[in-house]
Specification:
The chain has four helices and no strands. It is mostly helical. Helix 2 runs antiparallel to helix 3 and helix 3 packs antiparallel against helix 4. The longest helix has 34 residues. The protein is elongated.
């Protein structure tokens, strides 16, 4: 049994006081954070940020859809592979596996086509 496992009433008074102070401090911090977030939301709303944020999200979604279509389309030339590399860079994907797998498949296909000709 660790010190923290002991019931609150069994803990020494200084420890209970410390836990109480921590809980009060946490409550105050959460209240301040909530007030801050509310104020930021009010300012954003007054500035019309809701609509702008929705427009931005729509444009990012469109970019991702185009990027996924680019990766799904087989590249038949080196220029096509370069386009896929650029699309992956511009998308800034945290996980670039889809782009790399698509490019690798294209390179293998092009290499096989060269080997048979």
């Amino acid at each position: 049994m660790s010190f923290n496992d002991r019931k609150a009433e069994q803990q020494p008074e200084p420890v209970r006081a410390w836990y109480k102070a921590c809980a009060e401090q946490k409550s105050e911090s959460e209240a301040l954070w909530k007030a801050y977030k509310t104020k930021v939301e009010e300012i954003d709303c007054e500035a019309g940020m809701d609509g702008l944020e929705d427009a931005y999200n729509d444009s990012v979604d469109a970019m991702w859809q185009i990027g996924h279509r680019i990766f799904a389309t087989p590249a038949h030339t080196l220029d096509g592979i370069i386009i896929k590399i650029r699309a992956g860079d511009r998308m800034g994907a945290p996980d670039a596996n889809e782009a790399f797998l698509s490019i690798a498949a294209d390179v293998r296909r092009l290499a096989a086509a060269e080997a048979t000709s």
